[in-house]
Amino acid sequence: MFTLHNGNNLEILPSLPKVDFVITDPPYGINKAEWDGEFPTAWYQVCKQLAKTIIIITGSSQLKITIPLVGEDFVDVIAARNLNGMTFSPLGFGNWLAAVVAGEKTKQGVTFFEFVVKGEMPNHPSPKPIDYMRKLIARCTEPGDIILDPFMGSGTTGVACIELGRRFIGIELSAEYFSMAESRIKLAALQPSLYTPSNKACSGQEPLAERFSNFD
């Protein structure tokens, strides 16, 4: 199940039902595109009325504004290492993403994973790799959960939700990116689900002992 909205999230959010998680990748305010002039903050308080847990994906340099945004709601950071790509950072090049967890704790597990950039990337200035979104969603949520992304962009969060048996609500201001996201999510809905109870990689149920076996 998915529901998509094209418009201003501050206008749409008050009309939405309660959800299990907000997982989003808001503009960083680093002028990467014309809509990336500032880091938005007003949405956070509105989303707190809808979800008990909010997960904000951000670059390492943006932690200095993301953590103050969530304030006392801060729980932890889930770090993810990019094995075959890099981004710019204040000190040069970086190869990791941060996901700031706020509100209620997610299920217990490791706070680090690795991902790769593979397949065709959507035509968007800052798309998140599908491998990253699958692993973050599987790590933090359960099948059947409702996940809201108020900054949907090209729809990668929605695609990963559909693939993993989660329900999705997305909001995107740009008509161009909304159309792109809608097409990608509808296509994902036509494909077989990646989630099965026995699929440890997708269900996030891999025993911790197995994850740490390489450190013996």
What does it look like?
- The protein has helices spanning 9-12, 42-48, 63-70, 130-140, 156-163, 175-189, 200-203, 208-211, and strands at residues 2-6, 21-24, 53-58, 74-82, 87-89, 92-94, 96-103, 112-115, 146-149, 167-172.
- The protein has one domain: Rossmann fold.
- The chain has an eight-stranded mixed β-sheet, with helices on both faces. The protein has a two-stranded antiparallel sheet with strand order 5-6.
- It has 216 residues and is α/β, with parallel strands linked by helices.
- It starts with a strand and ends in a 5-residue tail after the last helix.
- Strand 5 (87-89) and strand 6 form a beta hairpin.
- Helix content is 28%, strand content 24%.
Describe, in short, the structure shown.
The protein has 216 residues and is α/β, with parallel strands linked by helices. It is built from 8 helices and 10 strands. The chain has helices spanning 9-12, 42-48, 63-70, 130-140, 156-163, 175-189, 200-203, 208-211; strands at 2-6, 21-24, 53-58, 74-82, 87-89, 92-94, 96-103, 112-115, 146-149, 167-172.
Question: Cα distance, first to last residue?
Answer: 42 Å
Helix content: 25-40%
Number of helices: 8
Number of domains: 1
Oligomer: single chain
So, CATH architecture? 3-Layer(aba) Sandwich
Q: Identify the overall geometry.
A: globular
CATH domain class: Alpha Beta
Biggest sheet, spatial arrangement of strands:
1-10-9-2-3-7-4-8
Structural features:
216 residues, alpha/beta, Rossmann fold, eight-stranded mixed sheet, two-stranded antiparallel ribbon, 10 strands, globular, disordered C terminus
